[in-house]
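Pilot study result, target chain (369 residues):
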Amino acid sequence: MDGALKAHQIKNLSLEFHVKNNSSIIFITVPDFLAKELTFDLDPSIPLPVEASENYKPENLSREMILSGMLQIIADPEMADIPPEWVSYYRRFVLTVKPEIYHEFTSAAIVKAKNGEYELALKINSILESLFPASPGVLLNKALILENNEALNAKALDAYEAVLSLEPVLPDAYFNAGFFFMRNRYFTRARDCFSRYIEVGEEPEKNKQAKKIVQELNSQGLDDKDFKEAYDLINRGDNEPGLLKIRDYIEKYPKAWKGWFVLGWVLRKLGRYEDGLQSLKKALELGEPNSEIQNEMAICFMELGKPEAARRELELALKKEPENTKIISNLGVLAMKSNKKNEAAAFFRTVLELDPNDPLAKHFLIELN
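Predicted structure:
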């Protein structure tokens, strides 16, 4: 082909995000039809990258093929030995010809993440990072994608640190980071983020929620040394020392529901199911009904031979968090214990739809077969 300069074999994504196992990039001179159609100020001295299959024919060239080629070069400039100014030119081209790309690709990344396709969601988001360098919204989306995958939690922390280092910081970055730090027990960081959101956030409901969380963090002393040490000890399996630490914490904060929750959690891990259940009921009495407490209560009820009570707690928890894989897995375990194999398998398959890498669901499905 006269207009072709060079070809580079790659494995990447097309504009529609279908994996191309044998795709390639070729460079062509600016075709006449494109020069006539576009308002973009084309530079005929800069060739255009095209994603072309092995059966590519010049007469089948489309704008989508050019955009796809450009996006791959923008996302990975080292793919081709070209001058940096060409990459900048391609970036301007894409943003001019496809101004809706930010919203379109953001939506696509979110959908992929919700479907558990985290790698693909991150690839789509990386294209946005290349198109919009240091965009707070793109960096925040990256953090949100990463935190939805437990295996990528450490990378999520780095992503949140990056988005929080920008000036000015997006209010939603403070809000979402606050919840991320809460889930990972960085309570001081969480309080700082929610406090900053209260100062700069403009959404009344989120502001109200942030104030409530800050008040709870302050009143319950969740950044207390004994609480943090107790949680860390129990989390790594040092249950007896953890039990002593959480009792020390409860002496200082007897009305802190999270203290009673952690006490119930460790007692359950120690096989003291009745004592654990009483502690969890105390947590429920002091706090608001939440899926965390109800899930733990259900485990205690299961071990105490009370399947109906366990099911009740799990169903209540699932109403609050319908995509919580731990709750769905425990419904599967409960069904297994009741010898309802088909029902159990259905629960575990649901878990794998939400998280294809869940090891327990995979194990139980194999066991059921």
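One observation from the pilot: Residues 348 and 361 are 5 Å apart (CA to CA). A full batch analysis is planned for the follow-on phase.
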